[in-house]
Amino acid sequence: MVKRYLYLSLGFICVGLGFIGIFIPGLPTTIFVLIAAWAFSRSSERFEQWLLEHPVFGSLIQNWRQYRGISVKSKITAVCLIVPTFGATILLTSFPILADIAFISFGLALCTFLLTRPVPPTHSTQQVTP
Fold first, then answer.
1. 26, 16 in Cβ contact below 8 A?
2. What is the DSSP letter of 128?
3. Which of 8, 58, 73, 99 could make a disulfide contact with 43, Cβ separation 3.0–4.6 Å?
4. Domain boundaries in the chain?
5. pLDDT tens digits along 66-114
6. What is the b/e burial string over 22-31, where b = at least 16 CB atoms within 10 angstroms of the residue's CB?
7. Cα(117)–Cα(115) distance, rounded to whole angstroms?
């Protein structure tokens, strides 16, 4: 019973962090949503189903679970948000040069990871007529 509440707590914390990550550069949304889905799968069918049916996160979770992949649209969106936010953070703050180098390295590693994930197959709903 305690284990269930720990997983539920982890799920809610990760959903919250994922939500905050939408607005704060450098705080990843996707990984927190995936962790939340994993935690809910071990504690609450209801909350797991809520995430799986979520209009924004549902397909992301399903693609990751089935194919360990990320859609092209999600990759483009992520990279188009990562590059300017990391760049602006580096240019507009007065962190030491080592912090800037670490930030650049993390951004490059994150973009590389995203871009090297497989692309899940797309399911066409169009029927071919002769």
1. no
2. P
3. 8
4. 1-67, 70-120
5. 999 998 988 888 888 889 888 988 999 999 999 999 989 999 998 999 9
6. eeeeeeebbe
7. 6
Which residues neighbour 44 within 8 Å (Cβ) at sequence distance 6 or greater?
Answer: 4, 7, 8, 11
Q: What tokens appear for 102 in the block?
A: 């670490």
Q: Are 32 and 26 in contact (CB under 8 A)?
A: no
Please tell me the distance from the alpha carbon of residue 26 to that of residue 31, in angstroms, as a whole number. Answer: 12
| pTM of the entire predicted model | 0.73
Distance CA(1)–CA(83), nearest Å, equals 43
Rounded distance between C-alpha atoms, residue 58 and residue 52, angstroms: 4
Alpha carbon distance 54, 60 (integer Å)? 10
Amino acid at 65: R
